[in-house]
Amino acid sequence: MRLFLALDLPSSLSEGVAAAQALLHDAGGLRFTDPEQAHITLKFLGETPSDRVSAVEEAVESAIDAADVGPFDASVGGLGVFPSLDYIRVVWTGVDDGADEMIRLHEAIERETTAIGFDAEGHDFSPHVTLARMNDARGKDYVTRVVQHEDPTIGSFPVREVRLKKSELGPDGPEYETVSRFSL
Predict the structure, then answer these.
(1) Model pTM?
(2) Does the domain formed by 2-183 have CATH 3.90.1140.10?
């Protein structure tokens, strides 16, 4: 199964996510994420045999203890792109309040999951919610203008748990299911 660790945004913020996406709707070449499934990925694990799930769960519990992060509040807003405005693959909204706690969680999860054989991330961690993926460059100039001139506020939410999630790719995009929850 295809697994990742995430912080889910509450459904109360899906309207804010959709409003940020609406700023980009006139750009061609974008594939939008489902606002109801908005989340911040802490670690993508990839294809994982079901008999390794318990080892992952133990690693995450150890990571949360090591990170020493209790429940906190986070705020989401603004716009950005990965990897750069010259070559856009992902359009995202970022994290303001709560970013430091998310980075500590990510770093601890990274240590614990690589210790049990998962690949290390090949890039720096930047807490974000993916709004859209760019399939082709038709809308690049439009996206660039929006990212440079708009600063949407998505909202704030309490972070109380990390979730181990399963992703199943379907014809309408990925569907996510929570496998395990880990309280902070």
Answers:
(1) 0.95
(2) yes
Q: What is the pLDDT of residues 114-150, one digit of tens each?
A: 999 999 988 899 999 999 999 998 999 999 999 999 9
Which pair of structure tokens corresponds to residue 140? 């690049």
Q: How far is CA 106 from CA 50, 53, 125, 129, in A?
A: 22, 18, 8, 15
Which SS3 state, helix, strand or coil, does residue 85 take? Answer: coil
Instruction: Strand 128-134: give its sheet, edge to edge.
Output: 30-32, 128-134, 88-95, 72-83, 153-159
* Catalytic positions: 39, 128
Pairwise CA distance, residues 33 & 126, whole Å: 18
Structural domain boundaries of the chain? Answer: 2-183
